[in-house]
Amino acid sequence: MALNQKTFVFDDVCKHNKPDDCWLLISGKVYDVTQFVDNHPGGWDVWRRATGKDATIDFSDVGHSDIAKGKMKIFYIGEIDQSTIPIKRSYMQYMTESIYNLRNTSQLIIKVLLVGIMAAALRYYYLRKYMKNVQENGY
């Protein structure tokens, strides 16, 4: 990264959202991927969905190879001013929500366990009832 690295404002990065002028924001870094749009295996549709927002999660979810990650250096043009990213579009907000959801996971586990215990109890009850009926009636 150059000493004179450029810092971009989120709204300016969002304006570059066309096939002939395409910038992406990934992990706080800004990439001008215009030259690669036509060569990307996913085509323009993939890029279109990743522009105008923090595309960190989109990029991570795909599972890019180390070669693809290495090529990103070619397209790097600067950093994003984090204070200009709307909170609803921020990767940090996603992480905060994920942590919050992890806290709620224990509540989900308890509910699933209760349903499982109830299902097992009902199965046991009906199985005992069935076996008792077989013993009394012979079938």
Distance between the termini: 80 Å
Extended strand count: 5
CATH fold assignment of the largest domain: Flavocytochrome B2, Chain A, domain 1
Oligomer: single chain
Query: What value does the average pLDDT take?
Result: 82
Strand order of the largest sheet: 1-5-4-3-2
Tally of separate helices: 5
Going by CATH, the homologous superfamily of the largest domain would be: Cytochrome b5-like heme/steroid binding domain
| SS class | alpha+beta
SSE pattern, N- to C-terminal: EHEEEHHHEH
Q: How much helical structure, as a percent, in the residues?
A: 55-70%
Could you say what the CATH architecture of the largest domain is? Roll
Q: Report the uncertain regions.
A: none
Major sheet = 5 strands, mixed
The backbone outline, from C-alpha atoms, is elongated
Number of domains: 2
Instruction: From the alpha carbons, calculate the radius of gyration and give it in angstroms.
Output: 26 Å
The amount of beta strand, in percent, is 5-15%
CATH class of the largest domain: Alpha Beta
